[in-house]
Amino acid sequence: MGILSTIRRFAEERLLGARDTLIAPLRQAGLEPGLKLPPPRELMVRLTARRELARDTLWLSFEPVEAPLFSWLAGQHVSIFFDPPGGEAAADSVPGALMASRRETRIYSIWNSPEDAAGTPASALEIVVKLMVVGRASDTFRELPTGATLSMVGPQGTFVLRSRLPEQLVFVATGTGIAPVRPMLVELGLRGASSRATLIWGVRSEADLFDLPDIPEDVRVIRTLSRPDDGWGGRRGRVTTHLDGLGLHREGAQVYACGNGQMILDVFAALAPAGLRRETGHVVYEKFFDAGFGGITGAALLPRGPLPPPPK
């Protein structure tokens, strides 16, 4: 058996061969004991709607084909599997050994809330996709017609609101990293805690901004552009430049950050003087890659942690 076949088999066994579990506990610094995550499973879904949100940014809505939609927590993500345009990827075109599985995998944060204000579970799952000039995922979603079916595994990830919330909450997002933050802010509103929240959302230009529906009105929203046009009258600069004026302190603040790896490192550095560190749970983050893979939360090559088999 060749090395590519071995790696592909390992990836598939890790995805589908783990034992079934009813609850997956969170394991990350600063989490409360006993905080639980719903178990992930594989699901076939159908694309039911799509539209353009902003320049090179798509909103996609999926509904389950047969099995019921899984439940999730605001801020979690899914792994989506697809065949690359033109058929299976050639082994010599795959960047890195872990990408050797010919079924392409990308991770996308879930854009919509898991349930409405009345507690009714969502019947569809929505994602936001940033289209790259070159990228197999971007090529796929750019042309994917409504009615097409894909396989996904979810929910995944520990980027979720903690049950114990401090007096000051700050959410920092760049680009489509806003996707998991939006339902978290909606949840804050349902929990009566949205007045504590400040959102700092950074994009390159005004053409990259899009609406954030259902965000509570009492959330303070700071939109900042790193490459603004002359006519832009709002905030300018990178997201970290707007952290200094918030008066954050270790005793009563927590920061949730989602964006590319360099932004996350910059947030760590900006918050360290105030004693806000990831090791103590003051900073909760989701890091994604932005090396042209076309995914909002990047190109995860293997599922994170053991997954149960799909229901029969």
Task: Report what the structure shows.
The chain is α/β, with parallel strands linked by helices and 312 residues long. It is globular, with a radius of gyration of 19 Å. 15% of the residues lie in helices and 28% in strands. It has helices spanning 3-16, 136-143, 178-190, 261-271; strands spanning 24-25, 36-37, 41-54, 57-64, 77-82, 104-109, 125-130, 149-156, 168-174, 197-203, 220-225, 235-236, 253-260, 283-288. The longest helix has 14 residues, at 3-16. The chain folds into two domains: 3-156, Elongation Factor Tu (Ef-tu), domain 3, CATH 2.40.30; 168-288, Nucleotide-binding domain of ferredoxin-NADP reductase (FNR) module (Rossmann fold, 3-Layer(aba) Sandwich), CATH 3.40.50. A hairpin with a 2-residue loop joins strand 3 and strand 4 (57-64). It contains four helices and 14 strands. The two termini are 30 Å apart. The model is unreliable at 3-30, 89-101 and 290-312 (pLDDT under 50). The chain has a six-stranded antiparallel sheet with strand order 6-5-8-3-4-7, covered by helices on one side. The relative contact order is 0.19.
CATH second-level architecture of the largest domain? Beta Barrel
Overall spatial form: globular
Distance between the termini: 30 Å
Number of structurally distinct domains: 2
By DSSP, the count of extended strands is 14
Q: Total helix count?
A: 4
Mean pLDDT: 81
| Rg of Cα set | 19 Å
Q: What is the succession of H and E elements?
A: HEEEEEEEHEEHEEEEHE
Sheet/helix structural class: alpha/beta
Helix content range of the residues, please? Answer: 10-25%
Low-confidence stretches: 3-30, 89-101, 290-312
Question: Which CATH class of the largest domain is shown?
Answer: Mainly Beta
- Enumerate the strands of the largest sheet in spatial order, edge to edge or round the barrel: 6-5-8-3-4-7
CATH superfamily of the largest domain: Translation factors
Sheet-strand content, in percent, reads 25-35%
Largest sheet: 6 strands, antiparallel
